[in-house]
Amino acid sequence: MPSNQSNITTIVGTQWGDEGKGKITDFFAGQSEYVVRFHGGNNAGHTVIVDGNTFKLHLIPSGIVYGEPTSVIGNGVVVDPKALLDEIAYVKEKGITPKLMVSDRAHVIMPYHIAMDGALSGHQGDLAAGSTRRGIAPVYADKMFRNGIRMVDLLEPDVFREKLEKGYAFSKGIIEKTLNQSLNISIDDIYDTYSIYGEKLKSYIHDTSVELYNAHKSGKSILFEGAQGISLDVDHGIYPYTTSSNTASGHISIGTGVSFRNIDRIIGVTKAYLSRVGESPLPSEIHGNSAKSLRDKGSEYGTTTGRPRRVGWLDLVQVRQAVRVCGLTEIALTKLDVLNGFSELPICIAYDVNGSHITEMPASLTQYRNAKPVYKSLPGWADLPEKVWEKGYSALPETLKDYIAFIEHEVGCPVKIVSVGPQRHETIIR
Ligand code: GDP
What is d(CA 107, CA 151) in angstroms, rounded to the nearest whole number? Predict the structure, then answer.
């Protein structure tokens, strides 16, 4: 197990999510004193296996499963209080007393946000991103409209009622007049139910920015746990086929109140090929039998839905952007074992857009829709030596090391963690 060499470590996805962040987080979470989420909501999800015990989490940081670290839900996260209470009950059932703090400034997902989310997808048609319909986009929109309700408001009856009147009327108008759906829950029902949620969550609600500031000053180790991946970032991703939050590491400062000047180590988790849930063009996508065999080898099926994920070859245009925007100090390259047995491995190094080669992600949807992958094919490898993780990096096949060196050269960032299997020990640290 690696030591937390630096005080503040960050883990982010460099693709479309599902890169294997859970396994890499697992490496660091157990020895961190705080594990913190900084964006998104219960639309994330990973599986953590500890001592044969499987935990499926959507909102609470994965540090919770180790008992020792304090798990923090930062102000940049949006919180469905019912989902949070259910997840607290779930970890308690598994024998864990949650050491959990939720920012008093985190925005609350209300029933009208969930209702609006369903109606919005129909309205957006071909531009719909494939929402999880958990109210994430509408709650972030309400935050910016300054119609939002924050965790602290649930504890202040008068302010809660005042804000709810405004937020409810606004959303009801959009749902019923613009989106032609009905909102079948009364303001009084919401007020009563969410006041009870507030009461139940009261002991977890804190000023987490101050808590983390003091933790950092006293030398405690902090791990920031990103969800989704860079191409889903609402600013830097393939907008509008993105999530509704900033997945890039820069959002840590805003989403937790911890200054970016304090972050030492930023690890970008990159899967050795691509998978994508949801809509949008995908230049290096592969289809047919080759897609099926890659999907089967990599178990690329939705964890809750079982739906086949779209798959493709590694796209370095995307990873290059992650290195630049997130300021990655290193890459953790995962699922290399899934590529065993390919005689040749294409890597997308640029896009051909109407005859011009571009090496950076375009903002233009027209360009992205017309982007054809420019591949460099590298020789593959047959198999990995038995228990290669015990033998170390030098025991990897030469062609695999060349594959890694090529990636490092193209994106300008070292690969320091090499993952060759789902289990914690199936990992090589360089
Ligand atoms: P996240 O969404 O980025 O957190 O992705 P997950 O942590 O859910 O990872 C997706 C899946 O890949 C999980 O089932 C992991 O166990 C698995 N996984 C992670 N790393 C490796 C690896 O190196 N090889 C293989 N075969 N599976 C891996």
Answer: 6
- Do 243 and 12 meet the contact criterion of CB atoms below 8 Å apart? no
Whether the CB of 13 sits within 6 Å of ligand 1? yes
Supply φ then ψ for residue 163, to 5 degrees.
Answer: -70, -35
pTM above 0.90, yes or no: yes
Pick the CATH number of 8-95+208-429 from 3.90.170.10, 3.40.50.300, 3.40.50.2300, 3.60.40.10: 3.90.170.10
Helix (H, G, I), strand (E, B) or coil at 28: helix
pLDDT tens string 51-99: 778 888 899 998 888 888 999 999 999 999 999 999 999 999 999 999 9
Please state which of the ranges 44-58, 284-298, 406-420 shows the lowest mean pLDDT: 44-58
The CATH number of domain 107-204, selected from 1.10.300.10, 1.20.810.10, 2.120.10.10, 1.10.357.140: 1.10.300.10
Output the CA 422–ligand 1 centroid distance in Å. Answer: 6
Q: What is the pLDDT of residues 253-269, one digit of tens each?
A: 999 999 999 898 999 99
Ligand 1 atom closest to Cα of residue 229: 3
Tokens of 245: 């939050």
Helices (H), 226-379: 251-256, 288-297, 316-326, 365-369
Residue boundaries of the structural domains of the chain: 8-95+208-429, 107-204
